[in-house]
Amino acid sequence: MAKKKLKQEEKLPDEGEILAMTGKVDAAEDQLSPIETLVGIVLRPKITFERMRDAAVGHWWVVAALMFLALTLVTIAQVPLAAEAAGSAGQSQTENTSTAQQLSEEEQAQVEQMQKIMTSQAVLGAIIGCAGAIGIAIGYLVRAGFVFLLGLALGSRATFKQVWRMAVWTTLPDVLRDLVGAIVIFATGSSNAPGLSYMLTGAEVSAHPYLVNILSAVDIYMVWSLVLLAIGLLVTSQLSRGKSAVIALACWLVTVAFALGLTAISQASLNMMGMG
User: How many angstroms separate the CA atoms of 214 and 209, rounded?
Assistant: First the structure.
């Protein structure tokens, strides 16, 4: 009897074995805190993406919150510059209109009232802020959706949830770009040309708007973001390095193509109004 009891006791698994069999140990190890994830993406992206892939929570809202904070600072910094530029453009347009045709006092008052509204810092701030917030949300959705679908086509085994939080975290360099840009505007009172577009002269910027878009999309933050995306795809979607790099590059090309499309629409609108 004593021997049978000993054998039964030996067969009983301990608490650690039970946790290992149910997967609770792995789940506990894969828990990431928001700060740990933020620091990890900067210092150890591959290890962090590996842990994030199997974690219950990816804390993608941290990047979104930081992005909206950066957007707020950029908006506050840019509004005075935008108001000044809009005022100058409006005054020039009014002078041209007055020269081309004689306006009545009532029409002149309406034009001036419209200019006051369009150059109001409150109005410009609301427009820039709302447009930026909508752009961020759409950008996250398009980025994650494009990466997910193209990854599936190339053999990805990741879920959309896994790809979503990975894709959002890879936009962390964009947050830093906006924060640095806001600091520069606050410090100098002017904004620098984005990316490599600083190499162009004023005449070249006016003559080649599409080239400006392409060069504006090339900077150190873009390279960092693409590297993070390639690493994230390699780990999260379990694709080869080549496929991960191809998807990351394709994502950047889609972003540039979208910017070029907006420029084309803007140029067409200006031509229709006789301002192109």
Answer: 9
Distance from CA of residue 107 to its chain's centroid? Answer: 43
Domain layout of the chain by residue ranges:
47-272
Tokens of 160: 């959309």
CA distance 62 to 105: 54
Contact 173, 225 (CB under 8 A): yes
> What 8-state DSSP symbol labels residue 217?
T
Considering only CA atoms, which of 79, 81, 90 is closest in space to residue 113? Answer: 90
In angstroms, the Cα distances linking 54 to 45, 59, 227, 248, 270 are 15, 13, 21, 22, 50
Instruction: Give the separation between CA 130 and CA 82, rounded to whole angstroms.
Output: 15
pTM above 0.90, yes or no: no
Q: Tell me the per-residue pLDDT of 221-248, one tens digit each, with 9 for 90 and over.
A: 999 999 999 999 999 999 999 999 999 9
